[in-house]
């Protein structure tokens, strides 16, 4: 394949010459050669890369795995290292004064944190955690806003070998309770509150409720460390609660990095699946480190003079991998932004880019779509000429949004890298490289080094060119998750049972004649709402926990800004009078968090079910999409007349 022969069915954007020059990989044949080598000789390929990191003891074997029976994956077995030492200590001799984070607060406050500062803050925090009784292997829950203490606490955990579990600050206290219990957290670190755009979120109150509920259900978390952020007066539980500023600053900044085996756990991050309970995705040390650092290097073409701005919250995997571990391992400089893109005005991101001369911007399609709607006058007010590479992540990007990003933000000079990956994959798996891979709007393009994807039919045979099927990965990459925490069987069942010997992603995709991947979206009951992953089953169980609700079924529908919206069909209990939809929507927000609030609630007398009682979601999806003509055959339903009633009531009241 050469650039000239790339198929003409869609628009192709060759890398701009400036990007080519600055790139680690300068043309498509070089990418192809390196990719082929990474598959032919994974030991050599990854071994050489790993050699650039700091090790207490080198590994004896690059990769061993079993994807058929036990489902085990080991990278750099026998090796001993510490991720925090690689992310910080390794850089101190030369780069102690380099900016690690430029923190920008919700209201515009700024704080520069160098690698030297980070070393000191992390050392103190690590010692404080030890003093509070945290030992290697213990789980530490972090429920914090986007303030420097969040990455500092993560790195402190990594330093002493504790396993962090970050819970996104937008999750409810109930969601927090579930995660505290499932991970068996020994300590919770939170803050008095959080600023988020025009809103203030009472994190400590929510944390208190979660701690109380966990204790009631048998899991006592003995310590809660509280960072002061909003300065609001918050309840304090004597004996359990400690202020960060009382505990951390008095510690010594020197704390030796614990010697960690390559496969020692690094963190747990909960994510939604197709059943009601979120999964604790477990990532380990060496493979994750090498994968995130290497993808950061090649996908964003990082240079020492770059300023990288990833707008994701650290509560999601994007923040873990590309606001903390990957870039820090590359001694990169980053913006850490506490606020939101449209506060105080819709030019907040563009203002930051111009003021600080951001060179690489990584954001979500949903943010691009919502800023696109605000109009071109907002980016036009600012000088965006420092930008060099633009990235997107989290959901499929529609070509219109891609083109806007490319034209209005990148001024047609910056390659757009549409990066496909998952919480489970740890780092980017499919993405163009800025200087070598021509892009096609809407396609995540080609696999990263060492990644071998395929599109499978239901029967496990490989799809032909442009034939839609299920996306799988045929061999392990270094950043793959190692288990579902405490539920290894669920790990096997979810990812390895559908196609024995391959990792099943849960995404639908097709591969075009040039080998480019086009990701269609989830094929399971998982929604991507503003890029956030939400299981329909979670929303349903939140709805039925409301006293008025007898039954609920939740489906996604196409949403112009959010990508997908949440449509809930609700059957009320007999004898309950009519109620409004808003208490139900608020109830879901209270149970799960505001991101899971249904956009629409449609009341129904009954749901379409087969004679065996299975809800026919296919039909509900068509109703929610407003395409009743595509419903098709309803003869297998126990009562087909239910469908007519739903079609009639759709779009009428109730939302
Ligand atoms: C799911 C994973 C990747 C980190 C943030 C989200 C969808 C992600 C893309 C993309 C199309 C994408 C997939 C995937 N997704 N990136 N570039 N193009 N779809 O991680 O919450 O674990 O979600 O997000 O459906 O399976 P996540």
What profile does the largest beta sheet have?
Answer: 8 strands, mixed
Indicate the mean pLDDT: 96
Please state the CA-atom Rg, rounded to the nearest Å: 24 Å
What is the share of helical residues? 25-40%
Give the end-to-end Cα distance, rounded to a whole number of Å: 51 Å
Question: What percent of residues are in strands?
Answer: 15-25%
* Structural class by sheet pairing and helices: alpha/beta
Q: Output the number of helix runs.
A: 21
Q: Bound small molecules, which ones?
A: 5'-O-[(S)-butoxy(hydroxy)phosphoryl]adenosine
Side by side, the strands of the main sheet go: 12-11-8-6-7-14-15-23
Q: Give the quaternary arrangement of the chains.
A: single chain
Q: Please tally the β strands and state the result.
A: 30
Shape: globular
Low-confidence stretches: none
Describe the model.
The chain is of the alpha/beta class and 655 residues long. Helices cover 31% and strands 23% of the residues. An eight-stranded mixed beta sheet has the order 12-11-8-6-7-14-15-23, sandwiched between helices. The protein has a seven-stranded mixed beta sheet with strand order 5-4-17-16-18-19-20, with helices on both faces. Strands 21-22-24-25 form a four-stranded antiparallel beta sheet. Helix 8 packs across helix 9 and helix 14 (365-373) packs across helix 16. It is globular and about 75 Å long. The structure holds 5'-O-[(S)-butoxy(hydroxy)phosphoryl]adenosine. The site of 5'-O-[(S)-butoxy(hydroxy)phosphoryl]adenosine (WT7) has 23 residues, from helix 12, strand 20, strand 24 and strand 25.
């Amino acid at each position: 394949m050469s650039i000239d022969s790339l198929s003409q069915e869609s628009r192709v954007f060759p890398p701009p010459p400036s990007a080519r020059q600055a790139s680690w990989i300068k043309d498509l044949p070089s990418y192809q050669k390196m990719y082929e080598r990474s598959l032919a000789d994974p030991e050599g390929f990854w071994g050489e890369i790993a050699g650039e990191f700091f090790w207490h003891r080198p590994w004896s074997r690059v990769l061993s795995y079993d994807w058929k029976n036990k489902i085990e994956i080991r990278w750099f077995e026998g090796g001993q290292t510490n991720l925090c030492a690689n992310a910080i200590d390794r850089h101190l001799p030369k780069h102690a004064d380099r900016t690690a984070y430029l923190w920008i607060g919700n209201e515009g406050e700024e704080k520069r944190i160098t690698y030297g500062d980070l070393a000191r803050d992390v050392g103190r925090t690590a010692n404080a955690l030890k003093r509070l009784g945290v030992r290697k292997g213990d789980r530490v829950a972090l429920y914090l806003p986007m303030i420097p203490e969040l990455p500092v606490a993560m790195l402190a955990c990594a330093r002493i070998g504790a396993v962090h579990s970050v819970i996104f600050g937008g999750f409810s206290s109930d969601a927090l309770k579930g995660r505290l219990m499932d991970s068996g957290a020994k300590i919770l670190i939170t803050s008095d509150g959080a600023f988020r755009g025009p809103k203030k979120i009472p994190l400590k109150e929510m944390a208190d409720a979660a701690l109380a509920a966990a204790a009631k259900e048998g899991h006592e978390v003995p310590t809660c460390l509280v960072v002061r952020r909003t300065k609001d007066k918050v309840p304090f539980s004597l004996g359990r609660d400690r202020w960060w500023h009382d505990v951390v600053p008095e510690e010594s900044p020197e704390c030796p990095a614990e010697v960690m085996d390559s496969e020692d756990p690094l963190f747990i991050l909960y994510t939604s699946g197709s059943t009601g309970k979120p999964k604790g995705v477990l990532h380990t040390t060496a493979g994750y480190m090498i994968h995130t650092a290497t993808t950061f290097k090649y996908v964003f073409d990082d240079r020492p003079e770059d300023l990288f701005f990833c707008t994701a919250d650290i509560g999601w995997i994007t923040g873990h991998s590309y606001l903390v571990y990957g870039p820090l391992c590359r001694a990169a400089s980053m913006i850490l932004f506490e606020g939101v893109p449209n506060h105080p005005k819709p030019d907040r991101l563009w203002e930051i880019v111009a003021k600080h001369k951001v060179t690489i911007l990584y954001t979500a399609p949903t943010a691009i779509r919502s800023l696109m709607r605000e109009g071109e006058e907002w980016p036009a007010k600012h000088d965006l000429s420092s930008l060099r590479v633009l990235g997107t992540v989290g959901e499929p990007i529609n070509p219109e949004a891609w083109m806007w990003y490319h034209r209005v933000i990148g001024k047609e000079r910056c390659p757009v890298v549409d990066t496909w990956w998952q919480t489970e994959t740890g780092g980017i798996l499919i993405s163009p490289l800025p200087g070598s891979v021509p892009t096609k709007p809407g396609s995540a393009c080609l696999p990263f080094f060492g990644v071998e994807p395929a599109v499978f039919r239901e029967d496990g045979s490989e799809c032909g060119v442009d034939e839609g099927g299920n996306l799988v990965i045929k061999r392990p990459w270094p950043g793959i998750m190692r288990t579902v925490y405490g539920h290894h069987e669920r790990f096997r069942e979810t990812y390895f049972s559908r196609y024995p010997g391959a990792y099943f992603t849960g995404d639908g995709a097709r591969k075009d004649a040039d080998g480019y991947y086009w990701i269609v979206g989830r094929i399971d009951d998982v929604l991507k709402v503003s890029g956030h992953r939400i299981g329909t089953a979670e929303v349903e169980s939140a709805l039925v926990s409301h006293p008025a609700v007898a039954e609920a079924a939740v489906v996604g529908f196409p949403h112009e800004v959010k990508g997908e919206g949440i449509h809930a069909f609700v059957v009320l209990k007999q004898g309950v009078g009519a109620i409004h939809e808003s208490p139900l929507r608020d109830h879901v927000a209270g149970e799960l968090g505001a991101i899971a609030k249904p956009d629409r609630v449609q009341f129904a007398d009954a749901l379409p079910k087969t004679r065996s009682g299975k809800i026919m979601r296919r039909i509900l999806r068509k109703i929610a999409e407003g395409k009743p003509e595509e419903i098709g055959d309803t003869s297998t339903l126990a009562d087909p007349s239910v469908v007519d009633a739903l079609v009639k009531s759709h779009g009428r009241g109730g939302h």
